[in-house]
Structures are given as C-alpha cells and as structure tokens.
Description:
The complex is a heterodimer.
Chain A: H1 2-29, H2 44-53, H3 60-72, H4 87-122, H5 127-141, H6 144-158, H7 170-200, H8 203-210, H9 215-227, H10 229-244, H11 247-252, H12 258-268, H13 271-299, H14 301-304
Chain B: H1 2-21, E1 37-42, H2 57-66, E2 71-73, E3 80-82, E4 85-90, E5 96-101, H3 115-126, H4 144-148, E6 160-164, E7 167-171, H5 193-198, E8 221-227, E9 231-236, E10 250-255, H6 260-268, E11 274-275, H7 283-289, E12 294-307, H8 317-325, H9 329-336, E13 342-343, H10 365-374, E14 386-391, H11 394-411, E15 415-420, H12 422-430, E16 436-442, H13 449-452, H14 469-480, H15 484-501, E17 504-515, E18 520-521, E19 537-538
Parallel strand pairs in B: 1-10, 1-11, 14-15, 14-16
Antiparallel strand pairs in B: 2-3, 4-5, 5-7, 6-7, 8-9, 9-10, 12-16, 12-17, 13-17, 18-19
Amino acid sequence: MTRFILRRLAGFVPVFLIIATLIFFLIRMAPGGPFQEGERFVPPEVLEQIRDTYNLNAPLHVQYFDYMRDLLRGDLGPSMQQPSRTVSEWIVLRAPVSIELGAYALVVSVVLGLFAGVLAALRPNTLTDYVPMSLAMVGICLPTFVMGPLLVLGFALKLQWFPVAGWDTAAHKVLPALTLGAVYAAYVARLARGGMFEVLAQDFIRTARAKGLSEARVVLRHALRGGIQPVVSFLGPAAAGLLTGSFVVEKIFQIPGLGKQFVEAAFNRDYTMLLGAVLFYAVLILAFNLIVDIAQAWLDPRVRYD
Amino acid sequence: MTKRFLASLFFLLAAGCTGENEGTGNGNSSNAPRDNVLRVAADAEPQSLDPMLTTGHTEHRILCSLFEGLTTLNQKTLAVEPGVAQSWEMSSDGKTYTFRLNPAAKWSDGTPITANDFIYSWKRILSPKLGSEYSYMLWCLENGEKYNKGDVTDFAQVGAKAIDDHTLEVKLLYPAPYFLTVHMHNAWFPVQQATIEKHGNIDDRQSKWILPENMVSNGPFKLVEWQPNRVIRVVRNEHYWNVANVSLEEIQFYPVNGNLQTAERMFRANEVDTMETLLITKVPAYKRDNPDVLRLDPFTATYFYRINTTRPPLNDPRVRLALAMSVDKESICNDVLFGAFIPARALSPPGIGGYTADAGIDYDLAKAKQLMAEAGFPDGKGMRPLEILYNESEDHQMIAEAVQDMWKKNLGIDVTSSKQEWKVYLNSMTALNYDVVRAGWIADYLDPMNYIECFTTGNGNNRTGWTNAEYDSLEQKARFEIDPAKRFGFMQEAEGILLGDTPIIPIYTYRQRYLVSPSVQGYDSNPMAYMNYRYFSVKHQPN
C-alpha cells in the first residue's frame, strides 16, 4: 500500500509542474495585464515602474524561471492587485472559508440526497418517489444563481429566519450551504435511488424479508450498504467540485472565500494570485483523487497491483 | 415506517434551523442596528487602504473616514472648510498658497501633524518607484511631474516647502482656482512617516502599514478591523482635532463585490443603513413603493461615446455630428435606464464648480440627415457598417442596442455592437482599435477643467485621435487665466469646439442612486459623492 501511495504521489509532481507552466503562459497570453491604463490615463513612466517592481519587464522565459524557482521554495509571491498580503497569506486567509462552506454543502447533499433517494427507492412509482425525484430534477436544473436568491427571498426576507448575506454566525451559513449542496443533493438522490432500487430487487433482500426481519432492518442493515456504492464513488469528484465551484454562492452571499478571490484574480489579471489559487486547487483535486484511489485500492485488491 | 422517519427528520431539520436562529436575533449579532453606528454596503472590496495606491471610488469613500487633507468640504454645499489647515492665503498671481496648520491636529497615535508630514506624503506619492496611479494629481506642483518621472531627484525642488512646523507653502505651475478643493482626494492625504518607515521604504507598494494593527491615520475615524470581503470597521478617533463634532461612533463597510443585488437585499433586511449603489432596475420599484429611502442625486460624472476620428468615414466631423444628433438621449434615459439618469447635452456635467456648458448637442434628425447627405452618405448609402464597442455589462449593452437601433432607423447605417471583457476593452480603447466605444468620466476635482483637459492633443485620456490646435490653445489660456469669468469663457469656447467637432457623443449625466434608511441623519448629497462623515449620525427608532 505504501508503495502504491508513493507511486501515485510521484506521478503528481509532473502534473503539478505542467499545470503551473500552462497557467503561467496562458494568463500572460490573455489581452491586457495587471498594470495597464484603466478607464483613466496612467502615465507610462508610472506603469513602467510598477511593472519593474513585479519583474514584468524581464523577458518571458526569465520571468518563468524566476517564478518556478520561487515556487519550488514555496514562495508564491505578492498579490499584484491586493499588494498588502502575499498570495500565500491570501490563500491561508480565504481557503478555510471555502473549505468550510464546501464541507457543509457536502453534508447537506449527502444527508438530503440519501434520504430522498432511499425513500424514493422504497416506494417506486408512488408519490414518495415522484415528489423527491422531481425535486431532485429541479435541483439539478436550477443553477445556484437562481436557487440562492430564491432561498434568500423565502427564508431571509420573508420569514426572516436567516440573514441575507455574510459569514459570521451559524445562521449565516445555512442558506449558502443549502444552495451549494442542493445540486449535489439532487445527484446523490438520483444515484441513491438507482442503487437502492437495484439492490432491493436482489435475492438476498427477498431472503432477508422471508426470514421475517423488520423493514427498517432490511433497508438499513442489508440494502443500504450495497445501494449507496454509486454515491460513494461520486463523492470524490463531488467534494472537489464543492470546494472549487463555490464562486457563485460566495458572490451571492458575500462570503469571503477563495473562489471569489480566484475569479476576481482572473478578471484583474492578478497573475501571481491566479497562479497561486490554481495551484492550490490543483493540489486539492490531486489530493481528493489520491484519497479516492486509496479507498478503491483498499476495497478492491486488484487495483493495487495494476 | 417511512412516514414516521420522514416526520422525525423534518422536525430535526426544523429544530436545527430555528435553534441556530435563537440567540442571534435576526441571525446576525455583529451588524445589528445600533445608534451612531453607520452600516454601509460598499460596492467592492478595497484593493488597498493606502491613500496613495488606491484608485477606486469605494476606496475613496472609506479613506475619507480614515484620513483628512489640508481642507475638507461641506457635506451639503461642498464649500471649503478647514481640515488639517485652519487657514490659508493665496498669492495675487494665484500660484502660491500658504497653509497654516491647526496645532491641535494629531495623528491617531496622539502625535502632532506637522508641515513636514505633508512634504513627506507628497514626496511619497511622487516617488517614481511607488508607481502611484494618481500621482499625476500632484503634477500641478512645481516640478511635481519631473520628480515623478525621475527627471528631478531632489524633492527640495518640488513646489512644497515647510516654512515651520505649522506653515506649509505650496507653489503651483499655474493658478488653479479649484486647488483648495483637491484635498478631498486621497492622493493629497497625509501619511505618517514613522509608520511608513516602520513597515518598509517610502516607495514600498507591498507595505503592511495599512493593516489595522499597524495603521496610523489622521481622520475622524481610525481603522480597527479589516476582514477582507467581510467587513471594514472604523471607530471614532479620539485624537481627531474636531472630535467634538463627530457624532458617529463607528462605521462598518460591508463589501458586496459588485453584487448590487446583495446590497439591496441587505438593506431590505436591515443589515445595512445605506449603500453605495442601487441597481438601476430596482429604481422604478423604489420610486413607486418606497420613495422615502430612495436617493437619486446629481453626480459629476458623464457617460459618453468616444468616436475614433482616425478611421474613415468617422474622420469627417459632419458624420460624427450626424451620429451624435441622431441619438435620442431622452429616450435612452427614460425608456432604457428607468429614468435614473439625466440626458447630457455636453461633456461637462451641468453646474460643475459653477460652470454649465452653453454649447450642447440636441436630438435633431433633420439636421443629422442633412449632414449625412453633405458628407456623401444620403440615407446611409455608401456608408460602411459601424461597430459600437462596450465592456461587459447589462446597462452598456442595453444602451448600445438602443443607439444601434437609432442609427439604423434614423440614418440608415448598419451598426453592430460588440462586448469585450474589461481588460480587453481597455486595450482596444487605448490602441484606437474601435469605431465607437462607450466611456465614462467621474470628476476628480470640482472644476470643468477636469473634463476640458482630457481632449487636448496627446492627453492620455483623449483616446479618440482627435486634435484641434484652437482647442489646445483655449485650454492653455484657461489654465493660466486668473480671472474666473474669463477662465470659464475660454472653457466655454473650448467645449463649443469639442461638441461641434464631435469626437465624443455625450449621452447622460450620472446620478448617484442609493438607499438611505430614515435612521441616518445628515446624509446630504453632494455632486462629488464626497463623504464628510462628521456630518452624519444614526438614530434608530425603537421597535
């Protein structure tokens, strides 16, 4: 197992370097730059000085090797657009918020999704099937930028249960977690329904029922374990998606997460901040892939010897 | 079983929700309404709080609470009032100002502010390596531009001198009758030398002196908390010289990062008392249902189109004027923009510094058609298709589509519109890679010169390729004229030439549009959107 993990980790190094290289050149190919004339004129002498400060006047390959050298030392440089903090400081400040939001959303999606999916599978083609499955379909189709404001309208402005925006108290976190979790809950529900439906039709369930076990015991002890397999394999990509895909929710609810920082860095051509955020996300996604790989290897010995 | 399971889960969830809600009131303890605490939804997260490095409007509104220049302006009338300087004199040629600093003026750490603090601050913003994008504001100082560009290295040659601790002499290149009002701008604010040097060099862009634990400032408030994208909190500065006249105890700025819908929702939920900008689509509903909280105030800012005068057939002034005359600005303001803005006839906003342009471009179809025919394009025949360029935004798109339609209908010209992402759009505009491009200009100081100077030959803000020797000479005459009436006369003439030659199409004068809770007092509007927070107070009605 250790060898397996080490081998996977070794494979990550080139992937990481390729991502860094690609992004480094891609963002420099985008028109404009971090320091250019804005809506009002900026004297060229001034722009020249700023570019000098950030090594942007050096030839591209020099900039690249300088950046990679610093990167390998763990230095992501200063943020070009929000200069009072370094990129690493920004990530340390902002990423935990996105991770927290993603974690809540993951819990929401698993709890709501499993509950609805299992319920639907137990009573196929009845109201208890149609209602949650239709809701799930709506959840999948409804983008977060519609879902979020709708939830705010209902629960914050009309019922006044939760605040409209912000990230302070527990109450602040309910609506964003619901909004972000809803789409994934819908997927989980459909996967769980499918999985459970299949398992419930199998012989060993009939046997269990024939033995006179209670319905709850049949479902929870026997069927669930097999039924949620598709959900488990979906959780890896879902977790990565929740952590990296929270930008819209962060914007709607004014949440100080990394997603917002990331997208704004792209618009502002904040080269260092953008690279830092991409690399951080890359590490996260690689880590989640590794966890999924390990889980699979643990469950299925054949994987280990591939 | 499933029914019971469902019911119990529902109860659990419901209990969880309400449980979290209890004890926190409206789910929110930190920004609960309190007397004399002003809660503001700010349009954006500030890039920085360094008065010499920020360029945005939101930053300016925050910095006005933290810093104070030599003078301040009255919140309502914009009349010049004492700031750090308690009095001043102007020489007879209008080029030398002597400021007497208030000996009671102190930094937030209690140390006195001296004339040398201003010298140091102006030296800092003009330091070439700091790369301040607003340094050109100080180019009106003798040798200011040369020092900024590195042609002069001894700051003693720049037109600012400390006569003694409390006397500051400023020498200008030209008489600038608006000079006493420029100090409302953050480019002119003082910073404390000891604080800057404790955290870096004079020209360090990445200095951490602006963080709450480090910052020393001199305004009515001081920074106590800055949680990026969450909140910026400033509290009353007990060392402020005029603290007795400051009612607010605290201001909280909540950045919404361009999501103006969130700002409006926060206002509705009483999470903020006021906001920077209301979405224009919300204006009609507030006008109808809740006019008491809605503010639509004049703003010294103009929305206009630039025309690329280097590209045929737009190099023909008749074609440009015809294009301008066939834009129905009244209809754009009322039908497209929900009546939120005022149709503009000229470039300079009406009334700026007491000046309103005599000349103007009005909607005149007959004249426009005649001009097109004279230029050789009767009913648009032979005219090549034009493209209107704008940066991504729903408002700009709606306006572009309306103009597109008007030019097609009125002049028979085929027009396309194209949107570009912000930085790409800026590139296209500065490189003159467009036919017609949308633009805007917010005044930096209260004087029409701020608009006139933009379109002189070679000015970096011109961006139309337009040059006119007579215009340039009138701008220079106005710049060096000391008699106010003659000065305005030169600018009137210049603006007449600009509008007649039409490198730009004025479309509307902006209005500030925002909501203010009835609990806020003293929030008088002024056309510069300048914030003198010492006039503000907040008193909530008991529920």
